[in-house]
Amino acid sequence: MSDDEQWYFNLSSGEVTKGKIANVFDRMGPYPDEASARRALEIAAQRNAAADDDDEDD
After folding, report:
1. pTM of the full structure
2. How many other C-beta atoms are found inside a 10 Å radius of the C-beta of residue 15?
3. What pLDDT, on a 0 to 100 scale, did the predictor assign at position 2?
4. What is the rounded CA–CA span in Å between residue 18 and residue 2?
């Protein structure tokens, strides 16, 4: 799947776009679908929590 067919979350505007519309510093992704991109902040928080748990195990 090309980058133009994947979904991104724009941190500055909160918008979800298909393709790399936003500046690299303002976008999160790519995500496989629009619904996942809309959950970008939630997904990031879950990944951070999992990484924190792994750090505590070390």
Report:
1. 0.82
2. 14
3. 78
4. 11
